[in-house]
Design goal:
Largest sheet: 3 strands, antiparallel
Radius of gyration: 18 Å
Order of helices and strands: EEEHHH
Helix content: 10-25%
């Protein structure tokens, strides 16, 4: 079950589409503006790593106990992931990260 990425030729937004099979036909429409003028783009892929490899590559990164004591690091992985995939971050996610960085608990979480 592949996931295809398309870039809108009208607004330059990127949309991802989960398709049930490679042979299934579908019409890609932009999530942002609704245009059907879409161009398929080369998707990125993930390479699995062991926990030891991640800790070795990032000795002071998110595996460190002090990492999240710095509020600038809250949501950093989420921001980097959206940017790496060329996908616009939804406003609700941006607001949650900004709220957490300012000391507010995300909605639905009682501290």
């Amino acid at each position: 079950m592949p996931i295809y990425e398309y870039r809108c030729q009208q607004c330059q937004g990127v949309s991802s589409f989960f398709v049930r099979s490679i042979s299934a036909a579908f019409e890609a429409t932009c999530d942002a503006c609704g245009s059907g003028d879409m161009e398929r783009r080369m998707s990125t892929f993930a390479l699995g790593k062991t926990t030891a490899a991640v800790h070795e590559a990032n000795p002071t990164g998110s595996s460190s106990r002090d990492y999240y004591r710095d509020p600038r690091n809250i949501g950093r992985h989420v921001e980097e992931t959206f940017a790496r995939h060329g996908v616009a971050m939804p406003d609700t996610v941006r607001q949650s990260i900004d709220s957490a960085r300012s000391g507010e608990a995300p909605k639905g979480i009682d501290l």
